[in-house]
Amino acid sequence: MQTHEIARRFTEHFVTAGHTRVPSASLILDDPTLLFVNAGMVQFKPYFLGEAPPPYPRATSIQKCVRTGDIDEVGRTTRHNTFFQMAGNFSFGDYFKAGAIEHAWNLVTGSRDAGGYGFDPDRIWPTVYRDDDEAFELWRRISGLPAERIQRRGGKDNYWDMGVPGPGGPCSEIFYDRGPEHGREGGPVADEDRYIEIWNLVFMQDVRGELSPKDEHPPIGSLPKKNIDTGMGIERVACLLQGVDNVYETDLVRPVIARAEEFSGRRYGADHEDDVRFRVIADHARSGVMIIGDGVTPSNEGRGYVLRRLLRRIVRSARLLGVREPVLPAFAEVVRDAMAPSYPELATDFERIRAAVQAEEEAFLQTLTAGSRIFDTAVAETKRQGALVLPGDRAFQLHDTYGFPIDLTLEMAAEAGLQVDRDRFAALMDEQRTRAKADARSRKVGHGDGSIYRTVLDRAGDTEFLGYTDLAAEAT
Ligand code: ATP
Ligand code: MG
Ligand code: MG
Ligand code: MG
């Protein structure tokens, strides 16, 4: 089942069930707590927070999402994109747990002839929050699944709040078992790929109070009107229904891998590290294009910096696949062709997108050229001294001044018959990271209310703003 069809069926199911269809919001919303929209509920926040009356009791959307916090997972797990589409259904004081579970169950296991996804009920594993007996019993009744298949979980995965006083509630995550060839048995385990989370149901029922030193935001009451917020990952469902290994091989992402194979002359599936690079390229090309599509340009700050990092990581990965010529405009075209049926603005606005990626790639390639000269000098010096190890200080200088990723230095050093003093390099990186953190804390972020931004980033433990200091730590 194609990705477009998965989205279409979702919308049709919920529109038929009385939900108002709401288009995706831009990835960039005027929300100081978020760099990018990262969930379907974001555009409905005022209704959930009681700041505005909901214009409809039920809504459904397919929301563009970017989660840069997942960047290190990309290409290495089977299920994390930096850009993905979250299908959601929302109830504002209308139906609650029973309705949400029933809808999800019916759509997931409903027969394909009748508009469902046709997943085998024997492979579905729902989880509920440990104290949520109500959800547990509803799952038993609605799905008929045996008790041991409905697992109780702690707050980390199965309780949701916004990190601020306000609504919160238990969640129910729905997993699909891909079978014994994907890992050990026994039910969903975080960070394993046998059981794939496809859908998350949030039951907003509690009011959470001010932050306490002991409990994050203790429950201080019940919401007068209970809400439903759900999110189903379209790419994950596509991966499972298309019978491919991971989300990067689904119909809308894979074409970029094919293009990268043409550029590199290497074959996807032949070498593990190369495969990760192919997947990173395909994932980042899509998120890069979608982010530019919503009006961001590469820069050294905020969203523009995240974008820059994504684009440069593509170029770097292509280089590690042996490609020397410019790749970004070509990859952007492939993304446009895959995504424009859902997002026609990508086609009408393509010249702007092309120009942005082209300029960024040229700038980065210049950096790489300058860095290569420094590298050659360092190699000559090392060899003249009869040493076999390139000093960590040099690797750090290349990284720090020329934006030269450490993996590139390692590879080029190996080609020159040298090793790199990685311990020294890591120590210098650590030092710099500590400095950058201290610096970021003492600095306000440009305009707007940077303080909120900062707080949220700190809380999330994100390092997006620490310049290039964390690039080297990251996998290729
Ligand atoms: P995971 O535990 O696998 O990281 P999550 O619990 O963080 O997922 P949610 O915040 O519950 O994800 O988001 C709702 C749904 O969106 C998930 O059930 C999943 O199907 C999808 N999803 C979340 N993150 C990603 C991602 N990085 N790439 C693709 N799909 C995603
Ligand atoms: Mg996650
Ligand atoms: Mg989860
Ligand atoms: Mg979840």
TrEMBL record:
Protein's UniProt keywords contain Ribonucleoprotein: no
Keywords tagged on the record: Aminoacyl-tRNA synthetase, ATP-binding, Coiled coil, Cytoplasm, Ligase, Metal-binding, Nucleotide-binding, Protein biosynthesis, RNA-binding, tRNA-binding, Zinc
Co-factor note (free text): Binds 1 zinc ion per subunit.
EC number, as in UniProt: 6.1.1.7
Transmembrane segments: none
Cell compartment(s), UniProt: Cytoplasm
An example molecular function term from Gene Ontology annotations: alanine-tRNA ligase activity
Stretches assigned to the Alanyl-transfer RNA synthetases family profile domain: 1-476
Catalysed reactions listed for this entry: tRNA(Ala) + L-alanine + ATP = L-alanyl-tRNA(Ala) + AMP + diphosphate
Cofactor or coenzyme needed: Zn(2+)
Family note: Belongs to the class-II aminoacyl-tRNA synthetase family.
Comment text on domains: Consists of three domains; the N-terminal catalytic domain, the editing domain and the C-terminal C-Ala domain. The editing domain removes incorrectly charged amino acids, while the C-Ala domain, along with tRNA(Ala), serves as a bridge to cooperatively bring together the editing and aminoacylation centers thus stimulating deacylation of misacylated tRNAs.
Function: Catalyzes the attachment of alanine to tRNA(Ala) in a two-step reaction: alanine is first activated by ATP to form Ala-AMP and then transferred to the acceptor end of tRNA(Ala). Also edits incorrectly charged Ser-tRNA(Ala) and Gly-tRNA(Ala) via its editing domain.
Protein's recorded name: Alanine--tRNA ligase
